[in-house]
Amino acid sequence: MVNKNSHVPIYIQIEEELKQRIYLGEYEVGSPIPSERDLSNSFEVSRMTVRQAITNLVSSGMLYREKGRGTYVSTPKLEQPLNGLTSFTEDMRARGLTPSSKIIKFEQILPPFDVAKDLLLEDGEEVYFMVRIRNADDQPMAIERTYIPVKTLPGLDVKKLNGSLYKIVEEEYQQKIGNAIQQMEASLVAKEDSKYLQMDVSAVVLIIKRISFLSDGQPFELVRSAYRADRYKFISEIQR
Ligand code: 16G
């Protein structure tokens, strides 16, 4: 399987072979791959070479290491299109996953200055502020911090926010959701969020800030979401 005369470094050939085995399901999601020792014996290469290949697959997220237990095949990342203004509930259902939320906080406050500016609020206009953990099949995927002008959704009932905010906006308040502006950046997970997302404190999240507008141009939410970078990848189609 390994061609020692090839110009392709051996650790890369091994990496490709392991990838293929994962792809073909020979190594199953959630199961351990063979030990470094077994792999180095079967490929007839040094353990160092095998380790290099495995380390690359751990860095790219295809494998994960469990201390003292071995190296396991990760669940493939969820592919989230970046075109289309969809809700978390819709996104998860479209994949056959069951969405659920845990509300950590819900309060009515005067917004911080920058939030008031983004939501085009006058002095003294209040917002609902909520923090929700978003789960898919009971696995935490993201934590969202949402600001909603009270005047846009007066009397918003916290009990309903276990479900879909967008459904409440459209069905209960009979408002049309129009468009949104999004920014994305990578960051180390905040210490508080690592607990909620069940991540290591040194893990990476993708932070998305979304400001969404009703079809009449009125902003109705500002959301900062931290997505688990090991569970998500974002896809967009671009044209020239
Ligand atoms: C998504 C949106 C968020 C929105 C939520 C509504 C991103 C980055 N964020 O998570 O802005 O508030 O959906 O979901 O996509 P819901 O209708 O299920 O409550």
From TrEMBL:
This is GntR family transcriptional regulator. Pfam families: GntR, UTRA. Residues 8-76 form the HTH gntR-type domain. The keyword DNA-binding applies. Keywords: DNA-binding, Transcription, Transcription regulation. InterPro entries: Bact_HTH_transcr_reg, Chorismate_lyase_/UTRA_dom_sf, Tscrpt_reg_HTH_GntR, UTRA, WH-like_DNA-bd_sf, WH_DNA-bd_sf. PROSITE patterns: HTH_GNTR. It comes from Kurthia zopfii.
